[in-house]
Amino acid sequence: MRIIARKTLKDFWADYPGAEEPLKAWFKVAGEADWKGPQDVKKQYRNATILKGGRVVFNIAGNKYRLVAWINYAYGIAYIRFIGTHKQYDETDVEKI
């Protein structure tokens, strides 16, 4: 998958240094993935939550952080729509971001 945009992750871990290594690990795995549909994501990330509209919620660092990506499976692109703490996630309508 092509991940857009890594800068979003870097900006987040600048504020939350504990997120750096888990986000780098997610970026590496997702970047090497060849997800053709939500079922492929679930095979690799059992705790991922599939939302409507192509969005997927990933638990990062043992669910300390949440990452929401909109995945265009046909083009092999994952757009990072949100990264935040669990509390920030709870305050966000991820269906609309």
Could you explain the architecture of this structure?
With 97 residues, the chain is of the alpha+beta class. It has 4 helices and 5 strands; from the N terminus they run βαααββββα. It has helices spanning 6-15, 20-32, 38-44, 86-90; strands at residues 2-4, 49-50, 55-60, 65-72, 77-85. The longest helix is centred in the first third of the chain and has 13 residues, at 20-32.
Average the pLDDT over all residues and give the rounded result. 94
Strand runs, count? 5
Order of helices and strands: EHHHEEEEH
β-sheet strand percentage = 25-35%
Shape: globular
Give the termini distance in whole angstroms.
20 Å
Helix % is: 25-40%
Figure out the total of helices: 4
Structural class: alpha+beta
Query: Radius of gyration from the CA trace?
Result: 12 Å
Strand arrangement within the widest β-sheet reads 1-5-4-3-2
Q: Please describe the biggest sheet, giving its number of strands, its sense, and whether it closes into a barrel.
A: 5 strands, mixed
Give unreliable regions as ranges: none
Short description:
Helices cover 36% and strands 29% of the residues. The chain contains four helices and five strands, in the order E-H-H-H-E-E-E-E-H.
Task: Give me some keywords for this one.
single chain; 97 residues; alpha+beta; five-stranded mixed β-sheet; 4 helices; 36% helix
Topology:
Elements: E1 2-4, H1 6-15, H2 20-32, H3 38-44, E2 49-50, E3 55-60, E4 65-72, E5 77-85, H4 86-90
Parallel strand pairs: 1-5
Antiparallel strand pairs: 2-3, 3-4, 4-5
Helix pairs in contact: 1-2
